[in-house]
Amino acid sequence: MPKTMFEKIWEAHEVKENLLYIDLHLVHEVTSPQAFEGLRMAGRELRRPDKTVATADHNVPTDGTPAAAMIKDALSRKQVETLEANAAEFGVPVYSLGSETQGIVHVIGPELGLTQPGMTIVCGDSHTSTHGAFGALAFGIGTSEVEHVMATQTLVQNKPKTMRINYKGTLGEGVTSKDLILATIGRLGTSGMTGYVVEYAGEAIEALTMEQRMTVCNMTIEGGGKAGMIAPDEITFEYMRGKAGVPDDFEAAVERWRQLPTEDGATFDTEVEIDASAISPMVTWGTTPGMVTQVSATVPDPAKMDSPADKEAAERALQYMGLEAATPMEEIRPERVFIGSCTNSRISDLREAAGAIKGRKVADSVRAMVVPGSALVKAQAEEEGLDQIFRDAGFEWRGAGCSMCLGMNPDTLIEGERCASTSNRNFEGRQGKGGRTHLVSPTMATAAAIEGHFVDIRNWS
Amino acid sequence: MEAISIIEGPVSVLDRSDVDTDQIIPKQFLKRVERTGYGEFLFYDWMRDGEIELEPNPILVSGRNFGSGSSREHAVWALHQFGFKAVVAPSFSDIFYSNSTKNGFLPVVADEATCQAIGEAGNARIDLESQTISWDGGEVSFEIDAEIKRRLLGGLDDIALTLQSEDAIAAFEAGDGGSYGPVTTSL
Ligand code: SF4
């Protein structure tokens, strides 16, 4: 029987029924301390340090502070120091603050060549779905499962259901992969993919670069999906070639990886079709990523919603966001702009954002910040002079980390501040208590920074 | 892990959908390196602003897609340490559901009508063994994976159970499967 890519990877990793072998375990400072502690208390070893790698990202300051000891926030410092000590004790390689390869865990995995097709990858972080862009089965786990993987290199898992989303046609000018995934979540809802491993397929997906594919898979979790996947192809192999962690015999590996894609005639539990050519630049208006609309549209009217639950949620969201129904999205004025996060902080995101500036300046009413996803992205951007383009336009140029995606470091919104953000979550308080987040693509964020309000990038000269 | 079988008593209601883990336990409380001490910070922003009030009853009822968002297990620890033993909702995010079951904290999927009825009744009894929720005026059964149920009823430690399969894991590692992926320690 023809198989899906997911089935092939699943079967190749079943140690026994419902016990899945894990090829790569990514670790960061926030969800690991209790797991290391659990190992220690039970007197257990970390089974495969050679399949584990750690980095500090969530807490780290991005203002150029050089070492863990310099984190001013005592609790953040303790978490990063704990990560370093735990990694040393259990033999896990760690890229902490100050390392040339430190960065957001989902940015460094791919850029170091650790993320490879056909693998099972887990991390105590929901955006682990990002790595599925390479044709890997990658998903987020909780701290108990982190400890389980540390101790056994396996996970107890029930086989999830499968969904394929077929995108017909191609994305229009100015429409990015961020818009594609936001539009998809808008259509399916925040739990539309719950319980599913989702394969993104079709012409529009095949045309995307690796970094754009990562943006799509990254936000799978915002639609409730367990994992997102995209079949590996020449674009994947070209991206990987020469990266530090890839197999020595790369061509032989490529031949193996070519066997992975879903076979013709394989069946999924659910199939969805979406017309990619009809997707517009998107902006969220509410407090879940599913509360999203086209930039050319207006803030929706809760009174016109069918379900009482949707209506109530929308009313509360508009109140929190300080928005009136029927306001044109283009009239919304963010005071802050954040370009960063594991969704959109890779080198191509920064190139696109910088490319949209064209000598213009950030509006006086806006404070804008660019936070590269990793130390390597930062170095590359500086080599290309992107930092100077951003600085000249009035953007702050920061060090690598999660930063204002979740504001565990000092980069946060203050109460009532409105932000155009390239991150993945617009939950209440996500970027700071009372902060109001609008999710957009990097070019849309740049345009908003310059104009002081959202603009339809397609009409923006 | 503490074994669970019957959870009964008063019900707290949080009548919202998409209650995300950023709300359940905001980021500023994720900096601890311990597993305890989260209960007092449950729904910190909403509680402190007086937007919601919750009693630490055994059962919490809420709306669809409960626990969406981040993988932080701290969300389950906070709910549990606050005093809840079970949460009943029409649907859960996958990671939250899984995290709950690793902590002896029972997530129960029930349709909207049941959730509403339990909330109105103010009291309920959840019997894991028979997979039923009952309240004054009604009873329904709920689904739960047989293996998860066995582990919850027995308070079984996942890691110890998996380590009983040591031979299978070692055999897998010795075969082709064990050589897949990068060697992180050689970078
Ligand atoms: S950038 Fe944001 S979403 Fe990504 S890992 Fe960091 S905190 Fe999580």
Can you walk me through this structure?
The complex is a heterodimer of chains A (461) and B (187). Chain A has helices at residues 5-12, 33-42, 74-90, 105-111, 143-152, 177-188, 203-206, 210-218, 234-240, 250-257, 308-321, 347-357, 375-383, 386-393, 442-451; strands at residues 14-16, 19-21, 24-28, 52-55, 94-95, 120-123, 137-140, 154-156, 161-168, 196-201, 227-229, 270-275, 282-284, 292-294, 336-339, 367-370, 396-397, 418-421, 436-439. Chain A has 461 residues and is α/β, with parallel strands linked by helices. In chain A, the strands form five sheets. A five-stranded parallel beta sheet of chain A has the order 5-4-3-6-7. Chain A has a five-stranded parallel beta sheet with strand order 17-16-15-18-19. In chain A, helix 2 (33-42) packs across helix 5. The mean pLDDT of chain A is 95. Chain A is globular and about 55 Å long. Chain A has 15 helices and 19 strands. Chain B is α/β, with parallel strands linked by helices. Chain B is built from eight helices and seven strands. Chain B has a seven-stranded mixed beta sheet. In chain B, a hairpin with a 4-residue loop joins strand 5 and strand 6 (132-135). Chain B is globular and about 55 Å long. Chain B starts with 5 loop residues before the first strand and ends in a 13-residue tail after the last helix. The mean pLDDT of chain B is 96. The chains are: A alpha/beta (461), B alpha/beta (187). Chains A and B meet through helix 2, helix 3, helix 5 and helix 11 of A and helix 4, helix 7 and helix 8 of B. The structure holds iron/sulfur cluster. Iron/sulfur cluster is lined by residues 57-58, 104, 106, 125, 127, 341-342, 402, 405-406, 423-424 of chain A.
Broad structural category of chain A: alpha/beta
- Principal-axes geometry of chain A comes out as globular
Order of helices and strands of chain B: EHHEHEHEHEEEHHH
Total helical elements of chain A: 15
Which parts of chain A are unreliable, with pLDDT below 50 for 5 consecutive residues or more?
A: none
- What structural class is derived from the secondary structure elements of chain B? alpha/beta
Biggest chain pair interface = A-B, 79 and 59 residues
Low-confidence stretches of chain B: none
Task: Kindly estimate the percentage of residues of chain A that lie in beta strands according to DSSP.
Answer: 15-25%
Global morphology of chain B:
globular
In percent terms, what proportion of residues of chain B is strand? 15-25%
Helix-residue proportion of chain B: 25-40%
Major sheet size, sense and barrel closure of chain A: 5 strands, parallel
Q: What is the helix content of chain A?
A: 25-40%
Q: In terms of quaternary structure, what is this?
A: heterodimer
Q: Count the beta strands of chain A.
A: 19
